[in-house]
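queue> pop job 88
queue> type: inverse folding (structure -> sequence)
queue> payload:
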């Protein structure tokens, strides 16, 4: 099932990031007592009861200038409208209702999405008189909370999860490869999608009757079924949002969560940027298979070594993704575009590959002989047995005598040996340790 997205919207300084940090459990955004502080981390995974959802702090997306607060609001609301399943509209219980709140409420009411009106900074059990003014926003009963004192958060989370879309079942047959084309604005996402879909051999299929039809593009290529995830947002241009680079991260998040394979696009004329690193990092952490596609290759002046230098630079900048194949393409001249689906299919298979336990243990035993496991204070790590517990992404469990003795450099060594023996190209793999007797 797709993970629901919850967006927090509200004026600067109402406490969005304080709330975000409380739910995210860690102080991952910077809170400052001045409006419009930019923050780096804008999304977090939150678990409540049996629900998992992605929380987005749209405040983190605000440009620093205070002059354009209203347009920031519009942009925030817009992103919330496009990506969120539930919108948390936060107001300030200490300042009470202000005109800008009404402005935002007007925008949100038009979205048709569930909106929860949350009054923050209600730090005691007594509601301030100004609380009742918020009923004027016509967004239902306001929910009082105190982010700093962690009051009312449980009740609020209950209200949030109640509003998640029902029956949000997996919409496509499992055999279809779900592909997210991700990257910053203007890198050529829609050009690439249109070039691939425009190829003669590709037939756009009509898998009817799903709610996702409008935003995804299913198609058939050769004998294989694919779905481009969230293409509506990419193909339909909404400039307000695109102009702010950080929004591209948010736009990509939902698509990444729902995909198996990511096409991570880099602009050859710009090289790897900070935004690229963030987006790629998310795909990596989410355990998706990824192919790095360097687009606009036609626009690059080439010398003998240009491509090698690009490869080196990308490996350097996106070092956590050394498993990802790199393609150099041009959506304009169509050079090597046909390689993209070929690679997507290949890494999708690698992503779902399960290796036989016997072979796996042979490989690990050999690795141990070549390079002894680490030891500490005279005690050496013993590796008893390895098994692959899941696919998409591949996860391995290694049974050991004492987890404390494991070391990341040895884990990386084991990972390399597994990759040498079996490939797993294009996919991250995870290695977990269990002590004997522990459950998997
Ligand atoms: N008394 C009280 N203060 C709060 C509460 N939540 C946040 N604050 C304070 O309000 C100020 C603004 O909080 P932030 O979390 O930075 O607000 P924000 O909405 O993310 O602000 P921007 O960065 O401008 O978007 C900080 O000084 C917080 O300590 C609360 O529940 N009670
Ligand atoms: N030279 C060159 N230009 C390209 C190539 N691919 C795309 N462009 C140009 O780059 C610009 C952006 O392309 P889009 O396909 O709209 O990019 P996008 O990533 O979908 O953009 P957003 O919708 O803003 O996220 C357009 O002007 C394209 O003509 C390419 O391979 N070579």
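queue> result:
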């Amino acid at each position: 099932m797709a993970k629901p997205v919850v967006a927090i919207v509200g004026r600067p300084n109402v406490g969005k990031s304080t709330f975000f940090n409380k739910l995210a459990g860690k102080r991952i955004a910077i809170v400052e007592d001045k409006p419009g502080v930019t923050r780096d981390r804008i999304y977090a995974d939150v678990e409540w009861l049996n629900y998992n959802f992605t929380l987005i702090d749209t405040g983190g997306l605000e440009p620093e200038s205070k002059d354009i607060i209203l347009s920031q609001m519009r942009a925030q609301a817009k992103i919330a409208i496009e990506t969120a399943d539930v919108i948390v509209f936060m107001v300030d219980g200490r300042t009470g209702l202000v005109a800008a709140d009404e402005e935002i409420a007007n925008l949100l009411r038009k979205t048709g999405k569930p909106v929860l009106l949350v009054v923050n900074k209600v730090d005691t059990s007594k509601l301030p008189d100004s609380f009742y003014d918020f009923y004027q926003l016509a967004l239902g009963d306001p929910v009082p909370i105190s982010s700093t004192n962690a009051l009312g958060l449980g009740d609020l989370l209950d209200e949030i999860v109640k509003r998640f879309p029902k029956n949000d079942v997996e919409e496509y047959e499992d055999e279809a490869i779900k592909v997210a084309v991700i990257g910053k604005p203007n890198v050529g996402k829609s050009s690439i999608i249109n070039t691939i879909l425009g190829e003669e051999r590709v037939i756009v299929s009509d898998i009817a009757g799903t709610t996702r039809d409008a935003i995804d593009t299913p198609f058939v290529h050769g004998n294989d079924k694919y779905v481009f995830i969230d293409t509506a947002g990419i193909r339909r241009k909404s400039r307000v949002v695109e102009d702010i680079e950080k929004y591209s991260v948010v736009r990509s998040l939902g698509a990444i969560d729902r995909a198996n394979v990511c096409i991570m696009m880099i602009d050859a004329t710009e090289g790897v940027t900070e935004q690229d690193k963030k987006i790629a990092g998310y795909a990596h952490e989410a355990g998706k298979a990824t192919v790095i596609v360097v687009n606009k290759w036609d626009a690059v002046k080439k010398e003998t070594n240009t491509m090698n230098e690009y490869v080196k630079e990308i490996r350097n900048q996106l070092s956590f993704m050394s498993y990802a194949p790199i393609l150099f393409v041009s959506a304009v001249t169509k050079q090597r575009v046909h390689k993209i689906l070929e690679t997507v299919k290949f890494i999708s298979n690698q992503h779902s590959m399960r290796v036989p336990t016997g072979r796996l243990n042979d490989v690990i035993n050999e690795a141990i002989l070549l390079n002894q496991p680490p030891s500490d204070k005279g005690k050496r790590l013993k590796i008893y047995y390895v098994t692959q517990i899941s696919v998409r992404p591949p996860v391995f469990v290694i049974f050991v005598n004492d987890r404390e003795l494991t070391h990341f450099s040895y884990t990386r060594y084991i990972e390399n040996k597994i990759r040498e023996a079996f490939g797993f190209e294009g996919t991250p793999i995870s290695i977990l340790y269990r002590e004997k007797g522990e459950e998997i």
